[in-house]
Amino acid sequence: MRAIQLLTVGSPLEERQVDVDRPGPLDVLVEVKAAGICHSDVHYRRGPHTVDRFPMTLGHEVAGVIVETGSLVDSGRVGERVCLHYQTSCATCEWCARGSEQFCREGRMLGKGIAGGYAEYVTVPARNAFGLPPSVSFEHGAVMMCSSATSLHALRKGRLAAGETVAIIGAGGLGASAIQIARALGAADVFAVDVDEDKLALAGRLGATPIDGRTGDAVEAVITETAGRGVDVALDLVGLEVTTRQAIDVLGVMGRAVLVGLAGESVDMVPFAALAPREREIIGCIDHLAQEIPTLLRMATRAELVLDDVVGASVPLDASAINGVMDGLESYGGPARTVIVP
Fold it and tell me: If we measure between CA atoms, which residue out of 67, 65, 88, 78 comes closest to residue 138?
């Protein structure tokens, strides 16, 4: 089959012919119908964050149709429309027992530890394949498996309660989902900070108050919008020094900053002055949980999470086209999400 692979850090992705991984007893083989291009994939290509081994077929936002089942999987699942939880796990260790499979010592991530969805087919454990409702397209189902799921997990880590206020730092693919999910969870006000005109416009259409980081002090603007109070929860979805500081500085008393972005820049601050006087918290956040995916699918079927304006473009399973999209993401440009449609 055709697969788009990363052969080494710093090099463009390349198309290669690879064997289809036949499903084991508890696995399913999925024909890929859509695979999202995530900013994490850009980091894997550029480094220092990268894949576990080379060559690697990237792609962790995947939806498709089951075409073959393992011997211990119900064969009636053949033909089922599915979206794929990207974190595989052993299901038996202490972390899996707690429902925190992202820390499973045997865990592997699609497109990072095991072959992902930038291909014609992908093989995953059957428990990672969640039924995709007929009202949700493959393109939307794929994107939900990372940007939407990670946004929900981040808001849960931030302990967002109904009636609280939220600042979303970075209004791209994750941010567009985070705005809608925060609203669905009962946020009273959502502020979206970005420097891209199109993404700010999208944030406004999704019900957030857009804050343009190019035209002034974004922190001051949020503080002003909240009558000096600051927000209860802030998500840094970018990971630059400036965005992490914004996520901390917009917080009010007992506010929680959740750090999600993978850029990995250091932040210069005096911890006591930045946190203690208002009992602010900084919370790390990684990935998401299988148990959260049904909640996302319910939100999508109730039109609380709508990705029509988020999935802004599609490209074929073509290395040149995919590299072009990733080049745009390097400079934080392009649509909120572009999806590969093989």
Answer: 65
